[in-house]
# Entry
Amino acid sequence: MSRPVEAKPSLVSDEARRGEPLPLSARASAGDEPACSGGKPRWASPEFGSIYEAHSRQIYYLALRFLGDPTQAEDATHDVFLKAYRKLGEFRGDSAMRTWLYRITINHCKNLLQTWHQRHMVNNADDSLWETAPASTDSPLRVLEIKELGQRIQNTLAVVSDEYRLLLLLVADQQMSYEEIAALTEQSADAVRGKLHRARKAFIAQFQKSA
Amino acid sequence: MNLKPAKLQQQQKQETTQHAGAQQATREFPSPEELLRHDAEQIEVPRALANRVAESIAREPRPARSWWRRLFSRP
# Structure
Protein backbone atom coordinates (compact mmCIF):
# COMPACT_ATOMS: atom_id res chain seq x y z
CA MET A 1 0.00 0.00 0.00
CA SER A 2 1.40 3.35 -0.96
CA ARG A 3 1.25 6.21 1.45
CA PRO A 4 -0.03 9.68 0.55
CA VAL A 5 2.46 12.37 -0.35
CA GLU A 6 2.47 15.28 2.08
CA ALA A 7 3.35 18.93 1.66
CA LYS A 8 6.94 19.86 2.32
CA PRO A 9 7.47 21.99 5.43
CA SER A 10 9.50 25.16 5.20
CA LEU A 11 13.24 24.94 5.55
CA VAL A 12 15.14 25.92 8.65
CA SER A 13 17.86 28.53 8.23
CA ASP A 14 21.50 27.50 7.99
CA GLU A 15 22.18 29.18 11.26
CA ALA A 16 19.57 27.06 12.91
CA ARG A 17 21.36 23.92 11.81
CA ARG A 18 24.48 24.57 13.83
CA GLY A 19 25.80 21.41 15.43
CA GLU A 20 24.43 19.24 12.66
CA PRO A 21 26.44 17.78 9.81
CA LEU A 22 27.30 20.47 7.31
CA PRO A 23 28.29 20.21 3.70
CA LEU A 24 31.71 18.81 4.21
CA SER A 25 33.64 20.58 1.50
CA ALA A 26 36.45 21.01 4.00
CA ARG A 27 36.55 17.27 4.46
CA ALA A 28 37.22 16.51 0.83
CA SER A 29 38.82 13.20 0.13
CA ALA A 30 42.53 13.11 -0.33
CA GLY A 31 42.16 11.64 -3.79
CA ASP A 32 45.14 12.09 -6.03
CA GLU A 33 43.07 11.89 -9.19
CA PRO A 34 42.25 15.19 -10.83
CA ALA A 35 39.16 13.52 -12.33
CA CYS A 36 36.96 15.07 -9.69
CA SER A 37 38.48 18.43 -9.10
CA GLY A 38 36.43 21.58 -9.55
CA GLY A 39 32.93 20.89 -8.33
CA LYS A 40 30.93 18.40 -10.38
CA PRO A 41 32.15 14.81 -10.30
CA ARG A 42 33.08 13.18 -13.60
CA TRP A 43 31.44 9.80 -13.54
CA ALA A 44 33.13 6.94 -15.36
CA SER A 45 29.61 5.64 -15.77
CA PRO A 46 27.03 8.40 -16.34
CA GLU A 47 24.28 5.88 -15.67
CA PHE A 48 25.70 5.28 -12.22
CA GLY A 49 26.09 9.02 -11.71
CA SER A 50 22.34 9.35 -12.20
CA ILE A 51 21.73 6.59 -9.67
CA TYR A 52 23.93 8.42 -7.17
CA GLU A 53 22.14 11.72 -7.77
CA ALA A 54 18.72 10.14 -7.36
CA HIS A 55 19.39 8.20 -4.16
CA SER A 56 22.44 9.53 -2.30
CA ARG A 57 20.45 11.90 -0.11
CA GLN A 58 18.23 9.18 1.36
CA ILE A 59 21.07 6.69 1.66
CA TYR A 60 23.22 9.23 3.49
CA TYR A 61 20.33 10.21 5.77
CA LEU A 62 19.61 6.59 6.69
CA ALA A 63 23.30 5.97 7.42
CA LEU A 64 23.58 9.21 9.40
CA ARG A 65 20.63 8.61 11.65
CA PHE A 66 21.28 4.87 11.92
CA LEU A 67 24.94 5.25 12.84
CA GLY A 68 24.68 8.64 14.54
CA ASP A 69 27.98 9.95 13.23
CA PRO A 70 28.46 12.15 10.13
CA THR A 71 31.95 10.85 9.35
CA GLN A 72 30.86 7.22 9.63
CA ALA A 73 27.76 8.00 7.59
CA GLU A 74 29.88 9.53 4.84
CA ASP A 75 32.19 6.52 4.76
CA ALA A 76 29.22 4.15 4.83
CA THR A 77 27.50 5.95 1.94
CA HIS A 78 30.71 5.79 -0.08
CA ASP A 79 31.06 2.07 0.60
CA VAL A 80 27.39 1.40 -0.19
CA PHE A 81 27.63 3.04 -3.62
CA LEU A 82 30.89 1.30 -4.36
CA LYS A 83 29.33 -2.06 -3.47
CA ALA A 84 26.30 -1.16 -5.57
CA TYR A 85 28.53 -0.37 -8.53
CA ARG A 86 30.35 -3.70 -8.19
CA LYS A 87 27.06 -5.60 -7.90
CA LEU A 88 25.16 -3.64 -10.52
CA GLY A 89 25.17 -6.69 -12.80
CA GLU A 90 23.33 -8.62 -10.08
CA PHE A 91 20.52 -6.09 -9.84
CA ARG A 92 17.67 -7.73 -11.70
CA GLY A 93 15.07 -5.06 -11.24
CA ASP A 94 12.85 -7.29 -9.08
CA SER A 95 12.71 -4.46 -6.57
CA ALA A 96 13.10 -0.72 -6.97
CA MET A 97 16.65 0.65 -7.11
CA ARG A 98 16.00 2.56 -3.86
CA THR A 99 14.98 -0.66 -2.10
CA TRP A 100 18.05 -2.47 -3.40
CA LEU A 101 20.34 0.33 -2.21
CA TYR A 102 18.61 0.38 1.17
CA ARG A 103 19.26 -3.33 1.53
CA ILE A 104 22.98 -2.81 0.96
CA THR A 105 22.95 0.16 3.37
CA ILE A 106 21.13 -1.70 6.12
CA ASN A 107 23.49 -4.69 5.92
CA HIS A 108 26.51 -2.42 5.88
CA CYS A 109 25.34 -0.30 8.83
CA LYS A 110 24.32 -3.35 10.84
CA ASN A 111 27.77 -4.84 10.34
CA LEU A 112 29.37 -1.60 11.48
CA LEU A 113 27.12 -1.37 14.54
CA GLN A 114 27.69 -5.01 15.41
CA THR A 115 31.45 -4.47 15.39
CA TRP A 116 30.99 -1.32 17.45
CA HIS A 117 28.65 -2.98 19.97
CA GLN A 118 31.00 -5.92 20.35
CA ARG A 119 33.82 -3.51 21.07
CA HIS A 120 31.86 -1.35 23.51
CA MET A 121 29.31 -3.82 24.92
CA VAL A 122 26.45 -1.33 24.65
CA ASN A 123 22.84 -2.48 24.52
CA ASN A 124 19.78 -0.58 23.40
CA ALA A 125 17.28 0.32 26.08
CA ASP A 126 14.75 -2.36 26.80
CA ASP A 127 11.66 -1.76 24.64
CA SER A 128 9.39 -2.75 27.51
CA LEU A 129 10.44 0.52 29.08
CA TRP A 130 8.40 2.39 26.48
CA GLU A 131 5.36 0.15 26.65
CA THR A 132 4.28 1.82 29.91
CA ALA A 133 5.47 5.30 28.97
CA PRO A 134 2.66 7.88 28.96
CA ALA A 135 2.91 8.78 25.27
CA SER A 136 0.08 8.85 22.83
CA THR A 137 0.81 8.30 19.16
CA ASP A 138 -2.03 10.75 18.41
CA SER A 139 -0.43 13.71 20.14
CA PRO A 140 1.64 16.01 17.94
CA LEU A 141 5.34 16.45 18.56
CA ARG A 142 5.84 20.08 19.48
CA VAL A 143 9.21 21.56 18.76
CA LEU A 144 10.23 24.90 20.20
CA GLU A 145 13.94 24.94 19.67
CA ILE A 146 14.28 24.03 16.02
CA LYS A 147 18.01 24.63 16.03
CA GLU A 148 18.54 21.74 18.43
CA LEU A 149 16.20 19.49 16.50
CA GLY A 150 18.76 17.38 14.67
CA GLN A 151 20.66 16.53 17.80
CA ARG A 152 17.44 15.85 19.70
CA ILE A 153 16.27 13.47 16.97
CA GLN A 154 19.63 11.74 17.00
CA ASN A 155 19.55 11.36 20.79
CA THR A 156 16.04 9.94 20.59
CA LEU A 157 16.89 7.47 17.84
CA ALA A 158 19.97 6.36 19.76
CA VAL A 159 17.79 5.14 22.62
CA VAL A 160 15.12 3.20 20.73
CA SER A 161 16.01 -0.28 19.48
CA ASP A 162 17.84 -0.78 16.20
CA GLU A 163 14.72 -2.37 14.72
CA TYR A 164 12.41 0.49 15.69
CA ARG A 165 14.94 3.06 14.50
CA LEU A 166 15.23 1.36 11.13
CA LEU A 167 11.45 1.08 10.67
CA LEU A 168 10.92 4.74 11.52
CA LEU A 169 13.64 5.84 9.13
CA LEU A 170 12.33 3.67 6.30
CA VAL A 171 8.71 4.73 6.73
CA ALA A 172 9.82 8.37 6.68
CA ASP A 173 10.85 7.83 3.06
CA GLN A 174 7.66 8.38 1.11
CA GLN A 175 8.92 6.29 -1.79
CA MET A 176 8.79 3.21 0.43
CA SER A 177 5.58 1.23 0.78
CA TYR A 178 4.83 -0.97 3.80
CA GLU A 179 5.27 -4.00 1.55
CA GLU A 180 8.73 -2.86 0.49
CA ILE A 181 9.70 -2.16 4.10
CA ALA A 182 8.37 -5.59 5.04
CA ALA A 183 10.49 -7.23 2.33
CA LEU A 184 13.55 -5.27 3.39
CA THR A 185 13.18 -6.16 7.05
CA GLU A 186 12.11 -9.75 6.30
CA GLN A 187 8.69 -9.74 7.94
CA SER A 188 5.06 -9.33 6.95
CA ALA A 189 3.51 -5.94 6.25
CA ASP A 190 1.15 -6.51 9.20
CA ALA A 191 4.14 -7.08 11.48
CA VAL A 192 5.65 -3.84 10.18
CA ARG A 193 2.45 -1.95 10.99
CA GLY A 194 2.31 -3.39 14.50
CA LYS A 195 5.93 -2.68 15.23
CA LEU A 196 5.67 0.79 13.78
CA HIS A 197 2.91 1.59 16.24
CA ARG A 198 5.21 0.61 19.11
CA ALA A 199 8.17 2.35 17.48
CA ARG A 200 6.21 5.62 17.25
CA LYS A 201 5.22 5.31 20.89
CA ALA A 202 8.81 4.67 21.94
CA PHE A 203 10.05 7.57 19.86
CA ILE A 204 7.45 10.03 21.16
CA ALA A 205 8.01 9.06 24.78
CA GLN A 206 11.74 9.54 24.48
CA PHE A 207 11.47 12.69 22.36
CA GLN A 208 9.17 14.34 24.88
CA LYS A 209 11.52 13.39 27.68
CA SER A 210 14.36 15.14 25.89
CA ALA A 211 12.54 18.53 25.73
CA MET B 1 0.41 61.57 32.99
CA ASN B 2 0.27 58.01 31.81
CA LEU B 3 3.23 58.24 29.50
CA LYS B 4 5.48 55.27 30.05
CA PRO B 5 9.15 55.86 30.51
CA ALA B 6 11.02 55.21 27.26
CA LYS B 7 13.05 52.42 28.83
CA LEU B 8 9.94 50.50 29.92
CA GLN B 9 8.35 50.89 26.48
CA GLN B 10 11.48 49.58 24.85
CA GLN B 11 11.59 46.62 27.20
CA GLN B 12 7.94 45.76 26.50
CA LYS B 13 8.55 46.01 22.76
CA GLN B 14 11.53 43.70 23.05
CA GLU B 15 9.50 41.17 25.03
CA THR B 16 6.72 41.23 22.42
CA THR B 17 9.26 40.67 19.65
CA GLN B 18 10.85 37.79 21.53
CA HIS B 19 7.44 36.22 22.16
CA ALA B 20 6.55 36.47 18.47
CA GLY B 21 9.87 34.91 17.59
CA ALA B 22 9.23 32.01 19.96
CA GLN B 23 5.81 31.46 18.41
CA GLN B 24 7.34 31.38 14.94
CA ALA B 25 9.88 28.81 16.07
CA THR B 26 7.19 26.47 17.40
CA ARG B 27 6.33 23.68 15.02
CA GLU B 28 4.13 20.69 15.32
CA PHE B 29 4.69 17.34 13.70
CA PRO B 30 1.79 14.91 13.76
CA SER B 31 4.01 11.83 13.81
CA PRO B 32 7.65 10.79 14.19
CA GLU B 33 7.91 10.07 10.46
CA GLU B 34 6.81 13.62 9.66
CA LEU B 35 9.49 14.88 11.99
CA LEU B 36 12.10 12.60 10.40
CA ARG B 37 10.97 13.66 6.93
CA HIS B 38 11.50 17.28 7.89
CA ASP B 39 14.87 16.38 9.39
CA ALA B 40 15.94 14.54 6.23
CA GLU B 41 15.16 17.61 4.15
CA GLN B 42 17.56 19.68 6.23
CA ILE B 43 20.49 17.32 5.87
CA GLU B 44 22.93 18.00 3.06
CA VAL B 45 24.94 15.18 1.59
CA PRO B 46 28.61 16.21 1.91
CA ARG B 47 29.59 17.76 -1.43
CA ALA B 48 32.93 15.97 -1.48
CA LEU B 49 31.23 12.60 -1.26
CA ALA B 50 30.07 12.52 -4.88
CA ASN B 51 33.65 13.18 -6.00
CA ARG B 52 34.96 10.53 -3.67
CA VAL B 53 32.52 7.93 -4.99
CA ALA B 54 33.24 8.94 -8.60
CA GLU B 55 36.99 8.59 -7.97
CA SER B 56 36.59 5.15 -6.43
CA ILE B 57 34.42 4.00 -9.30
CA ALA B 58 36.90 5.33 -11.85
CA ARG B 59 39.49 2.97 -10.34
CA GLU B 60 37.14 -0.03 -10.55
CA PRO B 61 36.91 -2.36 -13.54
CA ARG B 62 33.60 -2.07 -15.34
CA PRO B 63 31.06 -4.34 -13.65
CA ALA B 64 30.08 -7.42 -15.61
CA ARG B 65 26.68 -7.17 -17.26
CA SER B 66 24.19 -9.72 -16.13
CA TRP B 67 23.29 -12.59 -18.49
CA TRP B 68 19.73 -11.31 -18.90
CA ARG B 69 20.92 -7.83 -19.89
CA ARG B 70 23.34 -9.32 -22.43
CA LEU B 71 20.51 -11.47 -23.77
CA PHE B 72 18.09 -8.58 -24.21
CA SER B 73 20.63 -6.21 -25.70
CA ARG B 74 21.46 -8.58 -28.57
CA PRO B 75 20.48 -7.22 -31.95
Summary: Confidence is low (pLDDT under 50) at residues 4-19, 22-37 of chain A. Residues 125-211 of chain A form a domain with the Arc Repressor Mutant, subunit A fold (CATH 1.10.10.10). Strands of chain A lie at 141-143.
